[in-house]
Amino acid sequence: MKRTIAVVLLAAAIPCASARALPQPVIHVAPLHLFRSGHIGVSARINGQGPFRLVLDTGSPITFVSNRVAKILGLPGGAAPAGGGMFGMGMSLNPFARVKSLDVGGAVVKDFDIMVLDHPVIQMLGTVEGPVDGIVGFTFFSRFRTTLDYAAKRVSFTPISFEPPDVMKSVFRALMDRNGTRRVVAPAALWGMTLEDGADGPVIKSVYDGSPAAESGLRAGDRIVSLDGRWVESTIGFFDRAADIRPGALASLVVHRVGRDLPVNVIPRAGL
Questions:
Q1: Which of 4, 47, 62, 209 is buried deepest, with most CB atoms within 10 A?
Q2: pTM, full prediction
Q3: What is the pLDDT of residues 140-181, one digit of tens each?
Q4: Which helix (H) or strand (E) holds 8?
Q5: 65 and 93 share a domain?
Q6: Would you say residue 5 lies in a domain?
């Protein structure tokens, strides 16, 4: 009996080797600032320069900086063409740039792509809160277990083994790839009109005599506002929606003509 007790005591005194070897997670902590708009501001260093004030946005799929910051960092592709750039956001035709590092409170991501653009919401926020230099988005914070502590006004980052897909970059490349696969939208029902993109949406350029468009009273110069209750903002958007309309089916349009909106019913045909 004594011998058994001695063995038990000896076993209890030996520490667990596996527990002793478990590494402690590295947690990086950064102060956060709450703007009056509810946005979360953090201080970041990019390529060792800064600090720059960025918005930590858990809803943004991208990380981007303004053209001003891109110029400071010497990043390529920062200058937008005349007229406001792509999508009217001061974005060049090639807005991607690779940075060596982005550091928020010691949480560092190295060698990854960001975008360079002047987002109107960030610019508007800057007019109220002072300079705001961009957004820290999914491509950064998804590499960490990110914890927001509003009471303590801090955010913590614990590294995890996750490599996020660059959704925006793949979409952008698909839009810009002129040599890749093109999507051709060809509705089965023919309308008998041609369109062009105007400043506020697709505009009817011409109407063929005897066509469904002509019989419904559509005219050259009419701007298409909606199709079957859905807003239409571009020529490709119109054809995309029109692809669902079968020959002989009634389509309800709203067109803008001489300062007013007019309802027009069209019955496209299988041929002209």
A1: 62
A2: 0.52
A3: 988 999 999 999 999 999 999 888 876 665 655 555 555 555
A4: helix 2-13
A5: yes
A6: no
